[in-house]
Design a protein that fits this description.
- Helices cover 50% and strands 11% of the residues.
- The protein is mostly helical and 142 residues long.
- It has one domain (11-137).
- It has a two-stranded antiparallel ribbon with strand order 1-2.
- The longest helix has 29 residues, at 113-141.
- The radius of gyration is 17 Å and the shape is elongated.
- It starts with 10 loop residues before the first helix and ends with a helix.
């Protein structure tokens, strides 16, 4: 299991975004939740144990739009993941991030994603909401 953090956009916010026809909802929401999630990612990069710095450098933020077909959330819902990039072709492959976070039979857990979320979730939410608020104000003025 890959360590990650999930933030979900509320239905009220989705309704308000629909009212803003001059803005791409996906773009605005993705930018806002990415900015918020970056607060958590920054904290995770500080907390992660680093011998080579590879795992620290692999910590990244990614978003995904979901729809009814996903069976998980409603149309217009978004998820953001904070965790280690994995796979060939990645500049820093953090495939072992879950082993550090949760431990193995040979090493104790050294959590860094969950503590980062616990410490920075409120600030991340404030950053995302502030970004949306600024965008709403910009659109309403223009």
């Amino acid at each position: 299991m890959k360590p990650s953090v999930k933030l979900v956009v509320s239905r009220d916010l989705e309704r308000n975004l629909k009212k803003l026809s001059r803005v791409s909802r996906r773009e605005v929401v993705e930018e806002a939740i990415t900015e918020g999630a970056e607060v958590i990612a920054e904290e995770a990069r500080i907390l992660v144990p680093a011998r080579t710095g590879n795992l620290r450098d692999s910590i990244d933020v990614s978003t995904q739009a979901l729809n009814y077909a996903s069976g998980r959330l409603g149309r217009g819902s978004y998820e953001v993941f904070v965790g280690a990039r994995q796979g060939k072709g990645q500049p820093h492959d953090g495939f072992y991030g879950h082993m550090v976070e949760f431990g193995t039979v040979h090493s104790p857990p050294q959590p860094f994603i969950r503590p980062a979320f616990d410490q920075k979730a409120e600030e991340a939410t404030e950053v995302a909401v502030d970004r949306l608020r600024k965008e709403f104000n910009r659109i309403m003025k223009g």
